[in-house]
Design brief:
The chain is an alpha+beta fold. The protein has 5 helices and 6 strands; from the N terminus they run ββαααβββααβ.
């Protein structure tokens, strides 16, 4: 039965009443579809951004590999070639070994030869040479008295410059000394000369200041002057109980100005 006032059909028996849909309630199907479309668009944009980031990472890795790979290969080749073909500088131990090898062979060793000149062939097979020298008996060792004498030279590092006596001029000379001796005596000579160098400088400057210009104006006079200086240095060596004596003294450079 229909009630015109309430708009409800009265049900009888098992039938239940139902309500009439109000006219002021709108349908929401279109809005729901719009919301679904927006959500799908957002998800799609997120997927696109994630794919773009992944592609960017791959591109960056590929560029790093293209740039870094050749650089690593070149660096490896450079370091390898440097290690294979570059000779390392001799160490103090190597120089000391070469020094001992040269002395054991009976050759003279001066302070001027303590560097690279002692290296080279002497260090080749150094272990073999050392083993041989350790096993050498006294009968097989070379007789020092049979070794020939040779000159050992010592040069003063700095020039000697002083005023000439009774003159406004000055003299400047560079001096070298020599001794004829066997290799062991020659090494002792070089060590003693090095030890006495400060005292020698004072002695030489004192004697040079006693020369007049006329005492040095010719070759024979300069040779006579070097003999005076040689004897003065030998006296100084004896004064300090050194055994070495200078056999020759030279002006390696000479200038009056």
């Amino acid at each position: 039965m229909y009630d015109y006032k309430t708009g409800v059909v009265a049900a009888t028996g098992k039938n239940k009443p139902f309500s009439k849909v109000p006219d002021h309630m709108p349908m929401n199907d279109a809005d729901e579809f719009d919301n679904l479309d927006e959500e799908e668009d957002e998800e799609e944009q997120k997927k696109l951004k994630a794919a773009q980031k992944k592609a960017n990472r791959k591109s960056l890795l590929m560029m790093s590999a293209l740039i870094g790979g050749p650089a690593i290969i070149i660096a490896t080749l450079f370091i390898g070639s440097h290690l294979l073909f570059t000779k390392s500088a001799p160490s103090a131990v190597d120089i000391s070994k070469a020094y001992e090898l040269r002395k054991q062979s009976g050759m003279s060793v001066s302070t001027a030869l303590m560097g690279a000149e002692l290296l080279g062939d002497d260090l080749k097979g150094a272990e073999t040479d050392n083993a041989t020298s350790d096993n050498m008996t006294a009968e097989n060792a070379p007789d020092e008295n049979m070794m020939p004498d040779e000159y050992q030279y010592f040069s003063f590092v700095l020039a000697f410059t002083t005023n000439l006596k009774n003159s406004k001029k000055m003299v400047s000379v560079e001096i070298a000394c020599a001794k004829l001796a066997k290799y062991i005596e020659g090494d002792t000579f070089l060590l003693e000369m090095t030890d006495m160098e400060p005292a020698f400088r004072s002695v030489l400057l004192g004697h040079l200041s006693e020369f007049q210009e006329t005492d040095l104006d010719s070759v024979p006079k300069r040779q006579a002057a070097t003999e005076v200086l040689r004897l003065a240095l030998n006296e100084e060596l004896l004064k300090y109980d050194y055994n070495s004596q200078i056999d020759s003294l030279y002006f390696t450079s000479f200038r009056i100005f």
